[in-house]
Specification:
Strand content: 5-15%
Shape: globular
Strand order of the largest sheet: 7-6-8-3-10-11-5-12
Distance between the termini: 101 Å
Mean pLDDT: 90
Radius of gyration: 36 Å
Structural class: alpha/beta
Helix content: 40-55%
Largest sheet: 8 strands, mixed
């Protein structure tokens, strides 16, 4: 007898272990591995494994729970174990991979059935609730009636769905009740030996039907697709589906083999599978498992982790079983559910408790609801007529976008508003006054930001709060009508507040100590924005988890998608640069003296004054020589699209520019060219136009060395805060679409919605001719901006592009469109060069592409880091300039690979212009250091690129080079994070 018990126990353990590994192995994404095999039937095995699990597990649970009618407490235990397991599992996942934290995952963690975390778990939960009714029904019917009904439901489920049920959502868990019922039925009948063997044979045949039939029907499906004779309107895997009778017969055969062991299991042993099911089905499981590496062998890693997870599941289920159900609140609920068997009565009681709780907490709930509405309204105020521009080419309905994509950003705003309310309520002890204050601040702040957006195309920055003292200048900008409306609104709010406080006073529950604690917690919450931008920190990841993701490249879009409250908080503490050792006004003055001597030495050999020159810095949007794209092949029977620009190699300083962006980052390249400072020296990714320049009243650029400086951009002027920043640069003029300076000769090519480069150069030429003396022009084109739809008619490059990275038709079409655009750029540049050569004054054009177009996947930048961050540039001095001292070109070898920040020094050398101490520093950096750029590997910090394109190890720099680099970093810190002492040093910049 004891021997039989030991044997039975051994078989139970073996079966439990086998089932554990059978289920846990599905934590891995097996489809990828199966797809790499050469046997077609193996491709479908992962789906078969998962579908079989959806059948066998409810079948086993049905058999185990068939012995007696179950109380609702068992379903509650299942739910409780799942919730606690999910919470711990997700917390560990977030600790291991904090960057993957987001509130949608937290929502799924807390509400596994509502969010369809596991269809299998939902099915078991529903099955246990239905078990008492199934038990009564099956005991009222005969065996034949039970078999007939279950078989009929199985066939109907398959035929009515055409084997097309996806089992992705918890609702499909109701279908699993059918398998649970099969398990209850099969556990309580004696099966004759002949039927037993017939069942095993039928199951084996069913296995081969599925194994052969699925790839066979898949082949038929694709043959129909290829031949154009249908396909796409039927499920080619209908045999490999939980609703498939063949799958059920196959699983029943396995069930019959182990029936004796299965029916010997207890309900307590079944609790083991709740953590296992959670581990198997949780959306984070695959990422969690892949986050660990123990050995270099992928297979061994998987095996080790499976063993670890199996041990954890067994130990964890034991701990839950022993302690969880004894926790007082849970034990109380379990006790009640054991006494009450009527689901209707349970629902009625639960609803009563819920409504009682809502009524008791109605003030807090309504306050939260109001602040959520207030937060949502503040987001909508920043939109453009309830539209949000998601990129430069398209907009989306603001309500749909915000509720669908930014739901938790609104929740985070609500949290901050409620925290502000807690502080006000602690101070005033008056509900309506505190609520009104928060409401006025929330809506008022949104309106104030909208006013500034309309005026300047940017939100209010923390650095501008001091401007509140300048009401005399602010009020005229707002306008009398708006001021009157604000005053009237405030008067109405005050009257309403007085009325409510006297007529309907509200006192929130809790003592002053409790209110004080909440006020203190609220104040601490307002310290968290000081860590919002500290990459890798806990608060950083939590903030991102609430969908608060600031891009800093388009301030108008950022405030629309993050709201005015979070947008402001995101700017409070920007991580720009670490303060260098010995940074002080004295140090900056020392550098001024040091490089004044270098400037004097340089100026001894130079003849021209910069302010007498006409200098044009021309940013050509997304311009890259198409012939330099990785792996590209352009058919030889089509013309070279950039023949003229390539010809500039022999008549100008010509080479490769290193871009800090890919597919974007225009303003960063522009900032580098205008200032001579470098993106690679920043501590983190940022956009200086948005995060740095607004911190200063005046910002030095190359333009300050001219009596007149202007910018021309035949597009919207609000991007990257250009309107405000150009004002800080002291530009005399900024011409853009919609500005008071008209953009002339507007011409669009084909179906391209952007103004052409012909328009850009026409306006540039007009500005050149508008003044007799020297001037500086920042000329920005837009023609080649994404997207690259089939814009141009009669495009000879269509169908003429190929290469390893151009395999899809969509990419080839985009590339063909882009190449045609560069051909138009080439023609426009040729025309512009011809025009400036006719002008009788010294003109130098610095032409550069700002970054690669976003056609190829950015994933390829890891394989081609330098190539996909390299664009074309040239510096050309017109005939008159060359006749008056300007060089035709600088030494080619020394100027092949350069950074955008090198252009000032290079332009000064080519025009033979005298330099300031700062420009002498830039000249030294350009001549004596490798090109400095961002780290193309994606890491923080800078990367050094030699003149031949080789990566240079910073450790290989000489002592003098390291000192020069340190001087450069010191000056950049001074004008990005420091006190701008350089502006006080006489003659340093100008």
């Amino acid at each position: 007898m004891n021997k039989n018990k030991k044997t039975s126990k051994a078989w139970q353990i073996i079966c439990l272990l086998a089932a554990t590994f059978f289920m846990l192995v599905q934590m891995y994404n097996l489809k990828g591995a199966a797809a790499r095999t050469s046997y077609s039937f193996i491709n479908f095995m992962p789906n078969m494994l998962h579908n079989a699990t959806l059948i066998i597990v409810p079948l086993v649970f049905g058999a185990v729970y068939s012995k007696k009618k179950q109380r609702p407490s068992e379903s509650f235990k299942f739910w409780l174990m799942a919730i606690v397991t999910l919470i711990i599992y997700y917390v560990l996942f977030f600790i291991k991979s904090p960057g993957r934290f987001n509130m949608w995952r937290v929502w799924g963690m807390l509400f596994p059935i509502i969010t369809s975390t596991s269809v299998l778990f939902a099915g078991l939960f529903f099955s246990l609730l239905a078990q008492p009714y199934l038990y009564d029904l099956q005991h009222r019917l005969t065996k034949k009636q039970n078999l007939l009904i279950l078989s009929l439901l199985t066939v109907l489920g398959f035929s009515l769905s055409a084997g097309n049920l996806t089992f992705q959502y918890s609702l499909y868990g109701l279908y699993l009740i059918l398998f649970f019922s099969w398990g209850m039925f099969l556990a309580n009948i004696e099966i004759p030996r002949k039927l037993y063997w017939a069942g095993l044979v039928t199951g084996l045949v069913s296995f081969f039907v599925v194994l052969i039939g699925v790839p066979g029907f898949d082949a038929v499906y694709w043959s129909q697709i290829i031949s154009g004779n249908g396909g796409g309107d039927w499920n080619r895997e209908f045999l490999n589906n939980p609703s498939s009778p063949f799958m059920l017969l196959m699983v029943i055969a396995v069930f019959l083999l182990f029936k004796k062991v299965i029916v010997s299991f207890s309900s307590r042993q079944m609790h083991l599978f709740i953590p296992i099911i959670i581990f198997m089905d949780a959306p984070i499981s695959s990422k969690f498992m892949n986050a660990f590496r123990f050995t270099d062998s992928s297979a061994l890693n998987k095996l080790i982790l499976l063993i670890i997870m199996a041990v954890i599941a067994w130990v964890w289920s034991g701990l839950l079983e022993r302690y969880l159900f004894k926790v007082k609140p849970f034990a109380k609920v379990i006790h009640y559910l054991n006494q009450e068997s009527s689901l209707a009565k349970i629902c009625e009681t639960a609803w009563g408790h819920f409504t009682s709780w809502v009524i008791s907490n109605r003030v807090n709930l309504l306050t939260w609801a109001w602040f959520y509405v207030l937060s949502f309204a503040s987001f909508l105020i920043e939109s453009d007529n309830l539209r949000i521009q998601i990129n430069t080419a398209s907009t989306i309905n603001a309500i749909v976008y915000l509720l669908g994509t930014k739901f938790f950003a609104i929740v985070l705003t609500t949290i901050f508003l409620d925290a502000l309310f807690s502080v006000f309520y602690f101070v005033t002890t008056r509900y309506w006054t505190s609520n009104m204050l928060v409401s006025v601040i929330g809506i008022g702040w949104a309106v104030a930001n909208k006013i500034k957006l309309n005026l300047r195309g940017e939100p209010i920055y923390p650095t501008e709060l001091s401007e509140i003292v300048n009401l005399n200048t602010l009020l005229p900008m707002i306008g009398k009508t708006m001021v009157i409306a604000i005053v009237i609104a405030l008067v109405v709010v005050i009257i309403l507040d007085i009325f409510l406080e006297h007529k309907y006073p509200i006192k929130k529950k809790g003592s002053w100590k409790r209110r004080g604690i909440w006020a203190l917690i609220s104040l601490l919450l307002f310290l968290t924005p000081l860590r919002f931008n500290h990459d890798g920190g806990v608060i950083y990841h939590i903030s991102h988890g609430f969908d608060n993701k600031q891009k800093f490249r388009n301030p108008e879009r950022d405030i629309q998608v993050n709201g005015p409250v979070l947008n402001f908080l995101n700017y409070i503490d920007l991580q720009i640069m670490d303060q260098p050792a010995n940074y002080s006004k004295t140090t900056i003055n020392h550098l001024n003296d040091k490089y004044a001597k270098v400037a004097n030495k340089i100026n001894k050999t130079r003849k021209n004054d910069l302010d007498k020159q006409t200098i044009v810095f021309n940013l050509s949007e997304s311009f890259v020589d198409p012939n330099t794209f990785p792996t590209i092949r352009i058919d030889k029977d089509v013309p070279n699209p950039v023949k003229f620009i390539q010809s500039m190699k022999s008549r100008s300083t010509y080479g490769t520019m290193l871009s800090a962006g890919y597919g974007g980052g225009t303003a960063n390249m522009e900032w580098e060219t205008l200032t001579g400072l470098n993106m690679g020296l920043f501590k983190s990714t940022l956009t200086p136009y948005v995060q740095v320049v607004p911190n200063y009243d005046f910002y030095p650029t190359i333009g300050m060395n001219f009596d007149y400086k202007s910018a021309i951009h035949p597009f919207i002027g609000t991007y990257y805060s250009r309107m405000e920043d150009y004002h800080r640069f002291k530009f005399d003029k900024f011409a853009y679409e919609g500005s008071k300076y008209k953009i002339v000769d507007q011409k669009k090519l084909g179906k391209n919605s952007y103004n052409s480069d012909f328009t850009t150069y026409s306006n540039g030429m007009r500005q050149i001719n508008s003044r007799k003396g020297g001037q500086f022009i920042n000329l920005i084109s837009i023609q080649n901006h994404m997207p690259y739809n089939d814009w141009y008619p009669d495009n000879e490059y269509m169908g003429k592009v190929s290469g390893d990275l151009f395999k899809t038709a969509a990419v080839r079409e985009q590339m063909s469109t882009y190449i045609k655009g560069t051909q138009y750029t080439d023609k426009a540049v040729k025309q512009f060069i011809g025009q400036i050569d006719q002008v009788k004054k010294p003109i130098t054009l610095v032409f550069y592409g700002d970054h690669y177009p976003s056609i190829l996947s950015q994933n390829y930048t890891a394989k081609y880091p330098l190539q996909m961050h390299s664009t074309r540039y040239f510096i050309y001095s017109n005939k008159y300039a060359r006749e008056h001292g300007a060089k035709t070109r600088l030494p080619r070898k020394a100027n092949n690979y350069v950074n955008t920040s090198d252009f000032i020094a290079m332009m000064l050398e080519q025009t033979d212009s005298k330099v300031t101490p700062y420009q002498a520093l830039l000249t030294e950096v350009h001549k004596k250091l490798p090109a400095i750029s961002i780290n193309f590997k994606g890491d923080k910090g800078f990367e050094l690129i030699g003149r031949k394109g080789q990566v240079v190890d910073p450790k290989s720099l000489t002592k003098k080079q390291q000192e020069l680099l340190a001087d450069y970093e010191m000056i950049q810190y001074d004008m990005t994070s420091g006190k701008a002492y350089g502006l006080e040093s006489k003659g340093f910049y100008k």
